[in-house]
Amino acid sequence: MKYGAGPGTLEALTNQENMIAIDDVLVSEDIVEKHFICQLDACKGACCWEGDYGAPMTEEEAETFEYNKAEIMPWLDQEGKAYLEKNNTSKYYKAPKLLGTPLLKNKRCVYLTFDEKGYGLCGIEKAFKAGALPFNKPVSCHLYPIRVIKNEAQGFEAWNYERWDICSEACKLGKKHKMPIHRFVKEAIVRYKGQAFYDALDAYYTDHYPQS
Asked: Using CA atoms, how far apart are residues 159 and 18, in angstroms rounded to an integer?
């Protein structure tokens, strides 16, 4: 079965591995089947300080961040500012062969700030929402809990749902409100792949999960 996404440019279908194919993207069925709503009261933004590497960045994002370093700095805390005064706004991690956001010595993202409640908030996102920056946080952060893996050799990318125990309350809240992952990150999907792509994915969801 095919699902239109605009003037005949995108189609969605399912293969035997429960992946939804839209153009050159394979989307895990989990992304429309599972539920998710970030529960900041529970996790306090832990995804920005847990883990061994920074959030993935594209080369274009890295260049944009570096070019706008002076505009980014006022939105960071003292640790973040001190780091960027001596280092680049992105870092290449050799082991996973990943270009990503830099981490401070305590493993937290250099762009992470904290509000008066101790909740972690992205300095880039705050600046964007305030109109101080023309760009938002890296799209990999915006898409979370979706993780994108690109296969340059074969010309496609795979989208998977990244399960993490620190997000257990987000899963519960999403299930309570019947919010599928793809709808929770709609803004990010449209930003990354366009409205037509999102519409094709949502059409698949509507057709296959009519009672959700």
From this structure: 12
* Per-position DSSP letters for 143-178, written without gaps between them: HTTEEEEEETTTTEEEEEE---GGGHHHHHHHHHTT
The full DSSP string for 11-58 is: -EEE-TTSEEEETTEEEETHHHHSB----HHHHTTGGGTSSSS--B--
- Token representation of residue 107: 């493993």
Note if the pTM is more than 0.90.
no
Q: What is the reported pLDDT for 150?
A: 87
Sign, CA torsion 16/190/167/57: positive
207/107 Cα distance (integer angstroms): 42
- Measure the CA–CA gap between 40 and 54, rounded to whole angstroms: 20
Single-letter residue type at 122: C
CA pair distance 28, 170, nearest whole angstrom: 19
CA distance 162 to 150: 15
**pLDDT tens string 179-198:** 999 999 999 999 999 999 99
CB 191 within 8 Å of CB 142: yes
